[in-house]
Structures are given as structure tokens and as C-alpha cells.
Amino acid sequence: MTATDTQQGSKPRRPASGAQQKILAFASLIVLLMFFSVASPNFLQTGNILAILQATSVNGVLAVAATLVIITGGIDLSVGTLMTFTAVTAGVVLTYWGLPMPFGIIGAIAMGAFCGFISGTLVARLKIPPFIATLGMMLILKGLSLVVSGTKPIYFNDTPSYPALSTGSLIGKLFPSLPIPNGVVILFVLAMVISWVLNRTTLGRYCFALGSNEEAVRLSGVNASGWKVAIYALAGGICGVAGLLISSRLNSAQPALGLGYELDAIAAVVIGGTSLAGGRGSILGTIIGALIMSVLLNGLRIMSVAQEWQTVVTGAIIIAAVYADMLRRSRAG
Predict the structure, then answer these.
(1) Is the pLDDT at 224 greater than 50, yes or no?
(2) Rounded to an integer, what distance in angstroms lies between the CA atom of residue 89 and that of residue 240?
(3) Domains within the chain, CATH numbers bracketed
(4) Distance (Å, rounded) from C-alpha 78 to C-alpha 238?
(5) What is the DSSP track for 280-295?
(6) What confidence category does residue 313 fall into, taking pLDDT thresholds of 50, 70 and 90?
(7) First-to-final CA distance of the chain
(8) DSSP E strand stretches across the chain
(9) Are 164 and 248 in contact (CB under 8 A)?
């Protein structure tokens, strides 16, 4: 892409830059796969590939939620603890109250949407900076998870079909040679739906518009605050899906779980080409970014790299991805 190409208007420039970033991210994923497959003969085994996809299902769903918020020019630090709180909600509904599984699923997603609605209201209507509002929500939800659960894990032993929500394989029953977990299928179906929402609906158009120039949206007579609240609520509902996936995979709601997941989700979003400044991003890029994070962490574990160094690598990737985004924006400007 030449300097002349980047000056031909904002509408054509964004897809070109986004396509370039997705190609770069996909190439990075291929390089990582090749490197770890050479470094360890166990990496490309079927069981390990399925483990990577299973891990990506949770982080990928959280990253999809984070993508919506970041495109608006905001940030959501509460996605990890919100995932935990929705998992605890499902545990309360199914184990403590003894209701059927559909009620637990609906309860978790509805609670996520409600918490997202609260975060969106704090940001859009009370004008609290997104970083502070969602940081506060992160701490509130962390505490509520411990309070509601009594600081103990909630097990789903009374709902034996619950683990199949994530670890079962409907595709594997039809095609035994493709034992793809349900959680992975849910991730990709959700990604396609949200991608359609972003590209084909009014909410998606306002999502990009708010990130590009919120004041212009407001001056045009659009209820910018209302749309922003709706986007945060949608992101919260998606976090509820992540809560269902992780709790079904563990067959328990772990109230102390969640912190740190927001970092992996944000890293996946930025690696996938979504700008932290808002106004640009794609779900496809986010999924590629989530796969990169899962492959990297899995490969480092297989190579017996210590946990603390895995954290160091994750932090370095976040810094590098943000810096690359800054360079892209400065060149485009």
C-alpha cells in the first residue's frame, strides 16, 4: 500500500489496512504452527490441536465481546470477572435452585447483558472513562462472585448434561473422524453472527461511527449514548456465553477464576487488527488473534517454558501489538 493509496478517503482505506493486518496475523499464526511443530513432535497431535481449539473457544468468545467495545473507542477490563460471575449465576440457577439447564443458560447470558448494560450506562450516560468504569465493575464482579458462591466452587453434578455444552461433540457424533468440541462450534457460530451484526446492521454501523467520531454521531441527531449502552450490553451477553463455556468445561463455577482473561482477550483483539483508538476492527481478525495467543501459550507449555515467562511473553506481545497499531495509525494519518 502506497502513501497515495492511504490518502484516497477513509472508506477505502480502512478495509485495505484491515486486510493487510489480517494477512499479517494469519501469516504469524502459520509461522508459529510451523515453529512449534518442529520444536516438539507432540504439538501437532490430534489431542493437542483439540486442546488448543478448546482453549481458544473461551478466550475467543471474550475477545469477540472486547472487540465490540474497543471498536467504539472504549475498553472493558471486566470481561474476565464478568465471565466468572455469569458462570456463578448458572451455578446458582442449576445447582442451588435446581432449575432445568435452559434456565441456567438464559440466566447466565441475561446476567452478562445486565452487567454490560450497567457498564455502558456508567460510560455513556455518567461519562465515567471506560477504563475506570470497567475497572470498578471488574472489582465489583470479583467480589460478588465470591459472595454469591460463598467463596466455594459450585459443581454441576446435578446437571450431568451440562459439561457436554462445551466438551461434547455434536459434529463428532455425525462424523467420528471430526471430534470437534461444541465449544469450538459455538465460538465460530457466534463469530459469524457478530461479524454479520457489525457489517450488516444499524448497531454495527453505529459501533464503527462511535469509534471514529462520536461527537459527529451525536450532532447528527443520533442517540449516541443509547447505542453505546446497547453495544456494552451485547458484549456483556457474549461474556455470559464465555461463562457457560468455561464452567461447563470445568464442570464447576470457580468464583476465584477470571482475572487475567481480559489481558489475553485484549491482546487477541489488538493482534487481530482492531485499533485501540476505535473505529476499525473485524471479528475475523480477532479470531485469528485468539488462535495466535492459544497456539503461543500451548507451544510454550509443551516446550516446558515456566509459567512466569509465559506471562512475560504475553505482556511483550500486548506492547508490540499496541505499538504496531500506533505505527499503522500514524502512517494512515
Answers:
(1) yes
(2) 9
(3) 19-332 (1.10.3470)
(4) 13
(5) ---HHHHHHHHHHHHH
(6) confident
(7) 14
(8) 154-155, 252-253
(9) yes
